[in-house]
Amino acid sequence: MENNQKIILSGIQPSGNLTIGHLAGALTNWQQLQDDYQCFYMIADLHTMTIRQEPSVLRDKTMDTIAMYVACGISPEKSTLFVQSHVPAHSQLQWILSCFTGYSECAKMTQFKDKSQAHSDNINVGLFAYPVLMAADILLYQADLVPIGDDQKQHLELTRNVAQRFNYHYSDTFKIPEPFIPKIGARIMSLQEPTKKMSKSDENEKNIIFLTDSDDQIRNKIKRSVTDSGTEIKCADNKPGITNLLTLLSVSTGNSLINIENNFIGKTYGDLKNTTADAIIEFIKPIRNEYEKIKLDKNYLNNIIKDGMEKANKTAFKTLCKVYKKIGLVQL
Ligand code: TRP
User: Fold this and answer.
1) Claim: this prediction has a pTM higher than 0.85
2) Active site residue 108
3) Domains, the chain, ranges and CATH?
């Protein structure tokens, strides 16, 4: 039965606290997919190495992210939750795949170009090869579907190209994965600059609603969020601030945008902010409470990732052996 289930793999970097954007864009979907798919959900700790990390902070964030996955309903019984660096096959396969990836393929990645610009003092080879590590993450598990945000589509396209190239050379080895992009555009934007995606690594915390924020923090951030000129409350390209608040309200209540717009005819931006803050507070509270409880139980968390490590290693090692054999490495 389990073998017929399609496979899902996805991951988030433990480079900051998770935000309402992660909840709306990824974790809610991950949680729903667990019943119908065999899911591997990873903490992409190796991916954070492209930017200098404070070791103790990275360690804490990794455990915090696991606790948050669980608090958001990702079940360690249903899914495999694991830490990327606990599965050596990721790094091992990355090397092989990097020999099947063109220099120019990596050089043209939008994210590489953007990040090289943002960190021009540290354009390292890891940043360049980042999508190849991501390809290894995905291909090791023979994933059918990869839930990702828009910004990762290009990396998945590269994964597919590399996998097809390898399969063509050595016969079928990797499943060719498809991107899974959620139907509804629950894309949460920055609160102060609503034309930019909300990002956990944004330096300005006023831009972000963290899943760990207190009720007061949420209320203050929403109160100070940027709105647009005019008074009408509706989603529009020239109203990115209001669109974002409406999206947040929709995500937090499950109400459709159309319904919400209708409810706000004749009301003020202030009304929208109040209602949105209340809704987010209600939405996040149970998650935050659960997170705080789980976080205290270090044993429980350690057991989850130990179990995940074993399961993930088993699957990944199988693919790695297949690859080693096909390319002619001597195996004993
Ligand atoms: N690169 C992804 C991001 O920054 C995280 C990630 C790493 C990932 N490996 C992955 C996502 C494999 C999906 C599948 O968002």
Assistant:
1) yes
2) no
3) 7-181+298-327 (3.40.50.620), 205-293 (1.10.240.10)
